[in-house]
User: Fold these one by one.
Assistant:
Number 1:
Amino acid sequence: MTTTHRFETENIEAGYDGTIILNDISLVVPNNKINVIIGANACGKSTLLKTMARLLKPESGSVTLDGKDITQIPPKKLARVLGLLPQSPIVPEGITVADLVGRGRFPHQSIFKGWSKKDYEAVTEAMEMMKITELANRNIDELSGGQRQRVWIAMALTQQTDILFLDEPTTFLDITYQVEILDLLTDLNRKHGTTIVMVLHDINLTARYADYIFALRQGKLIAEGSPSEVITSELVKEIFELECNVIDDPVSKTPLVVPKGRYHVHV
């Protein structure tokens, strides 16, 4: 399922209640890649993702998919191309894993038809990919944080979209679950060619898993490129105001940020 969709923003400004958070951001999302948005807290990462996903209307500028403003694309049609996993999604009360995952098929269904063979196959494949098949009949409320996150991602996968947005999919998870979720998303990207755009806080996990990085500082896009281009000691200091050394990760051979705390620098 290798795609050629062109997703881009042009000179967007966006914010909340008249306060501008994003300033003149123009970018093109590389197809079939894992793209990560990084930056310090409150720099506009989630605001950018929400604006790109049409959850937030920009004050000016445009967000386009294949040259068409996304505000002009019918919601159901857009949902067949673009999937979204927001931060802290609300769990419907009393719903089972299988029922929640199945809701991802909504964009492909009509009120006049029941479930098709393709619908059932999509749910089965997504649950197998996220390794939650054995949880199908469990109530969402009974699951751990890591299990819930896999269920939400499975629901997004069931949409079978070419583009997937995820807002901090590893937040509040321990390191084992973080690595597992990112490995599973990498499986999705490599198996189906899904274009992934996500917000991550951990810069070293970003360096390991990202093909392409967008770096924000105070609402502006200040750097973009491969991990080796963006994760340098100079740019990390500019993005996060953090003194550090950047070395080669001994496992992945990607950049590894080693912070310089005041108590740990030996002259």
Number 2:
Amino acid sequence: MPLVNMRDLLCNAEKGNYAVGSFSVANMEMLMGAIKAGEELNSPMIIQIAEVRLNHSPLHLIGPMMVAAAKNSKVPVAIHFDHGLTLEKIKQALHIGFTSVMIDGSKYSLKDNMKLTREVISEAKKYNADVEAEIGRVGGSEDGSENLSILCTGVNEAKEFFDATGVDALAVAIGNAHGVYLENPELNFDILDEINKSVNVPLVLHGGTGISDDDFKKCISLGIRKINIATATFASVEENVRKLYEQSQKVDYFELHLAEIEGAYLNVKKHIQVFGSKNKA
């Protein structure tokens, strides 16, 4: 399958009432494991990396690898730059061939967030790429360095933002948070329902790690079409590698390589089944 646009995947998800998983990767092994799960379950998927992760996984190295993996996949794959913080890195991702980018202007005023988002949309159009933005504030932070408080998305703000930008996907804050939840998250489904009825755009749920299967399914029934999964996959890789070392006194590199692939594969496969995208490729 060719590398595809995010908006096409989310449009199909809207018609089919399911969500597409957007899975973070940090190296070749995680990328291989994620693609393996998507191909096995015949599922469309989004592969992403966030700007805060680039100190560990430089964009000029991992970006072309992600694009190549998508181009050679048997299922449709969009490549997404998550939580873009600088125009410099967003432009670099677009130049590499990412088919969607997220500009995270949630820390700014609504007016400044709209202005910044329009600027990124203008740049992305040069590459026929899609843009995701965020209204409100998802708790925590992508790399765990901050414990940002949750600021739920306002329905009127969401409508004003979409009308002013025409963004391709909108991330909402409904009690979700990045990283590991310290207690069971309490999602505000009433707000999600109101936003979904007011704004004609695919909605995105960040902070998927730790949300229950039932809550995922309810979010999907209320318009969530893209769900980000990062921490759970990193944890699954670490757990699988730890088990390998516990079972053997000596591990060679290629056993480690396979354990990392398997760890990513297991978590991505699990979430694809929950999100309802199996056999939707």
